[in-house]
Design goal:
It contains three helices and three strands; from the N terminus they run E-E-H-E-H-H. By secondary structure, the protein is of the alpha+beta class.
């Protein structure tokens, strides 16, 4: 049985300004729910978003906090 997607890793950019806006992980089954959760939690900085789903095991192995917006410098320091 395939592991179920429980989280979304989301990365935000402002393409017009060529600027990275941050990344976060939220508990959500798909990108739409993820965007809504990030907005509700005040960690959606706007711009365009790219996302991919994470299983519980994959999320735990990343070492990221849930519901926290990370800057580019923080993501670089974590090796992403």
């Amino acid at each position: 049985m395939e592991a179920e997607i429980e989280y979304q890793f989301m990365s935000f950019i402002d393409r017009r300004a060529s600027k990275y806006l941050g990344a976060c992980v939220v508990k959500a089954k798909d990108i739409t729910e993820g965007i809504n959760q990030a907005y509700k939690k005040g960690i959606n900085p706007g711009g365009e978003v790219a996302a991919f789903g994470l299983t519980e095991d994959h999320f735990q192995s990343q070492g990221l906090e849930l519901n926290r917006l990370y800057s580019k410098a923080e993501m670089d320091a974590l090796g992403f």
